[in-house]
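Q: Hi! New to this. If I give you a protein sequence and the SMILES for zinc ion, can you show me the bound structure?
A: Yes, paste them in.
Q: Okay, here:
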Amino acid sequence: MHQYKGKLIIHTGSMFSGKTSSLKKDLNRFRIANYKVGAYKPVVDTRGGDKITIHDESSMDAKCMVDIKEISKDARNSEYDVIGIDEIQFVGGDKDVVREEIESLLNDGITIVAAGLDMDYNAEAFEIIKELLPIADYVNKHHAVCTKCGTDAWVSHRKVSRSERVLIGAADEYEPLCRSCYQKTVAEENEEVNKNQIKLEIAR
Ligand SMILES: [Zn+2]
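A: Thanks. Here is the predicted structure of the protein with zinc ion bound:
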């Protein structure tokens, strides 16, 4: 008899914190326990084609889906007991629709293991994560290591200035930082910007 029915398990945290590895590990455990398991990822994440790619180079088969409705339909048609959704913060659909679909799957007894970023590089929370954390049965917050001081990291700081909220697969352009190193780094960056502006004004 399957112990897990209609449970929502969330793995969240910054980049390089091991969210996807944990998702994969959970799904493998469910497979060993003879649950029928499916894995999905949003189509926006094009790394590795139809595989869930993780930073330690291992991968698992995942179906690329455009939005939550598509995932939900496929999960029901495939009669999965458990589904994994990677990069949940990018799953298409309005946040209310995502929550409704997730709850409907849970109500039907399907267990969902979701992995996703909690915050973007500006330390702003992703809306879908905000919706899902309160209704989750289990929440696992993962931590990378701060590249400046070695304590638990808190946010994925972007080292280059670009307007997109997240640069997919551009791992080199991010560094995990703790709150204090993040604040120091952002203050230094702002100072640099101000200096350059002053230089420009003097040059005029
Ligand atoms: Zn630090």
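A: The mean pLDDT is 89. Let me know if you'd like me to explain how to read the tokens.
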